[in-house]
Design brief:
Length: 241
């Protein structure tokens, strides 16, 4: 009996530490070059589409799937929940809660970067905290100065003004505030990822009085969802040996 843990988040790693010794295998998409270790056997890379995912589930004798991918992952959760439904495999999404605005926050929510561009003042300087994969989807913002933060250095920015900020987010709002001031940031565009990692930039924005544009989360598929690590752990233990 093998449970597949679709990972790539802090919640997935925390859950894996609870599952050592059980029949669990974690799968990472390979977006980060040097991911932190999990507490269970781990594979890295895609499955080769829907048919490859089906074959993996069959070949590995997977008895259930716990999906702890990023809240902004769209394709994998949709595919996994649909295929688990086809194969009558138990499926559970572990999803961290979204951040909620506090007094003093200047938040607006939009669906796309194009919608964000439509509400930006002329010649804005943007801190784009939407992940490295956003680099190829910034054309709508090219009239502005863009500073995008990504974990790995993959070369120069593909836009005329601004550049890349390589490194992980700081948990210290003062460090984030200093970064925003150093680059003359006037607006932040981010994903409402939830969780402690990355929230310091929003604390910093509140302190500095900076507007924040948040990209909406993808809609949740019609599948069981939990925000509790305890519930996710119980689910895995019920289906693993």
């Amino acid at each position: 009996m093998t449970v597949l843990l679709l990972g790539g988040t802090g919640e997935a790693r925390a859950l894996s530490q609870r599952l050592t010794g059980l029949g669990v295998i974690a799968s990472l998409a390979g977006v980060t070059r040097k991911p932190k270790p999990y507490g269970v056997p781990t594979r890295i890379g895609g499955f080769g589409g829907a048919n490859g995912f089906r074959s993996f589930l069959k070949d590995e004798g997977v008895t259930a799937v716990i999906d702890a991918t990023h809240p902004y992952a769209a394709q994998m959760p949709q595919r996994a929940s649909a295929i688990c439904g086809e194969m009558a495999l138990p499926y559970l999404r572990l999803l961290r809660p979204a951040w909620q605005p506090q007094s003093g926050d200047q938040w607006q929510e939009v669906a796309t970067l194009a919608e964000a561009a439509a509400i930006l003042p002329t010649n804005s300087t943007i801190f784009l905290a939407t992940g490295g994969q956003s680099a190829d989807h910034t054309k709508a913002l090219h009239a502005h100065t863009i500073w995008l933060r990504r974990v790995d250095d993959t070369g120069p920015a593909p836009w005329p003004k601004g550049g890349m900020i390589v490194g992980l987010p700081s948990n210290d709002p003062q460090v984030e505030a200093a970064l925003l001031q150093r680059h003359g940031i006037t607006h932040i565009i981010a994903k409402n990822s939830g969780g402690p990692m990355g929230y310091a930039k929003l604390d910093a924005a509140r302190t500095l009085g900076l507007p924040v544009i948040l990209l909406s989360r993808p809609p949740i598929q019609h599948a069981p969802v939990t925000t509790s690590l305890d519930t996710a752990e119980s689910f895995v233990k019920a289906h693993a040996s």
